[in-house]
Amino acid sequence: MRKPTPDVLLCEAGFSSVPLFYAMRAVGHQVMVIGNLADDPLHGIADRSELIDYSDHDAVDEAIVGRDIRFLVPGCNDVSYWCAVLIAEDRGFPGFDPKEVVSKFIFKDAFREHARKKGYRVPSAALSMESAQSLNPPILVKPADVSGGKGMTLVEDLGAMERAWDYAEMTSPTGRALAEEFIEGQLYSHSAFLNNKEIVLDFFVTEYCTVYPFQVNSSHLSHDLDSVVSEGLRDWTHSFAEDLDLCDGLLHTQFIVDKNHEYWLIEVTRRCPGDLYAELIRKSTGIDYASLYCMPLCGRPLEVPEKAAKRVKYISRHTASVSRAGIFLSSQANLENASVSVVPLKMMGQKLAPSPFDKTGIFFIENADAETMVKRTPSLHEEVIVEMADDWKDA
Questions:
Q1: pLDDT reading at 392 higher than 90
Q2: So what's the pLDDT on residue 1?
Q3: What is the mean pLDDT of residues 339-362?
Q4: What is the pLDDT of residues 195-215, one digit of tens each?
Q5: Residue 171: CATH number of its domain
Q6: Among residues 146, 181, 216, which one ends one of the domains?
Q7: Does a structural domain hold residue 334?
Q8: Do 87 and 131 fall within a single domain?
């Protein structure tokens, strides 16, 4: 019997895109996936898969030629999203803004410049090493087009600026870096689903970086975020959507709230966040975040569930990782009065690189109440234990 022909191309085969795949299959789509890592899970699950590097725009475009692909869905990283934007521009796939619009927020240097012109609340920034000398330390130096905290350095002394700038440029695929004054405070994310530039559903998540200082590894749905801050973010989101004439779909923003309870915008994207962020929302609220993300990209109007405001469970998400390289043996959660599920990403005996370059699995912890969730989440790196070969050898 002939297999159904895929009508959707999903530009990622990694674990974070698994919820996207099943969300589209649930409404009848046949899904083809691409990615250059043969061990990625969707290569063994999808209706069709090909080993294609989605950073190669031309190779992805060639994969579409001659197929009945009607929809294009980016995965959970910026490289996948930018590739999809470029192809959508040429081929007219739904759910994407023009590349000139996307380029104003997907690249950190371009977003800082756009934000400066518009007067948005962003840290003071510099786009050259020379102008960075005028910033007030501590200064965060980062690549302009790399996500996940890679290539970042916190500069306490201006004498260390050159080395930090060179490292950021080396990490950047295009050799671009920027610097910004470091904001002390609590990190959050705001995921808003837009319809006609109005927020029809949104979520705030409290985030922690406890293993590597510039990559989120623990989080939970926000419980006590100041309403002045949340309303300020909603107002900004609407203004930003109006400013760039954004199409329907997700707008995801990371921001920091400082000691004066003022927010500072850090990053903006329209792709689904990684490390199974979609599952954190689904497990916490019962709302299928992955499905909402895919709807406009698959030519469907946003359909917000009636019970959108109801919290179902108090869930913590933790990405298990380590600060030193080694050989992975096992991971476990030493938690009382909690239900734990884990998505394993490593097998015993595999090499494990330090964060932010690797991870062993994603843990979801169901807590008894909000107080336990808020107290437990920042310390999950101490309660989710990753055992390495050296740990057994030295025992």
A1: no
A2: 44
A3: 96
A4: 999 999 999 999 999 999 999
A5: 3.30.1490.20
A6: 181
A7: yes
A8: no
Query: Is the pLDDT at 334 greater than 80, yes or no?
Result: yes
pLDDT for 336:
86
For residue 306, tell me if it sits in a domain: no
CATH code for position 369: 3.90.1170.60
Which of 165, 181, 197 is where one domain is finished?
A: 181
Regarding whether 321 and 394 lie in a shared domain, the answer is yes
In angstroms, the CA 68 to CA 7 distance is 6
Q: How far apart are CA 170 and CA 119, in angstroms?
A: 30
- Distance (Å, rounded) from C-alpha 25 to C-alpha 366? 27
Span 9-53, pLDDT tens digits: 999 999 999 999 999 999 999 999 999 999 999 999 999 999 999
Strands, E, within the chain: which ranges? Answer: 8-11, 31-34, 48-50, 71-74, 125-126, 139-143, 153-155, 177-181, 186-195, 198-208, 218-221, 249-257, 263-269, 314-320, 326-333, 339-344, 351-352, 361-367, 384-388
**Number of domains making up the chain:** 3
Question: Which residue segment(s) compose the domain that 345 sits in?
Answer: 313-395
- Predicted TM-score (pTM) above 0.85: yes
Does the residue 320 lie in any domain?
yes
Residue 45 within a domain: yes
Q: Which long-range contacts (CB under 8 A, 24 or more apart) does 376-379 make?
A: 376/316, 376/335, 376/338, 377/206, 377/208, 377/218, 377/219, 377/220, 377/316, 377/318, 378/208, 378/210, 378/218, 379/210
- Cβ(7)–Cβ(68) below 8 Å: yes
Beta strand extents in 275-392 (DSSP E only) = 314-320, 326-333, 339-344, 351-352, 361-367, 384-388
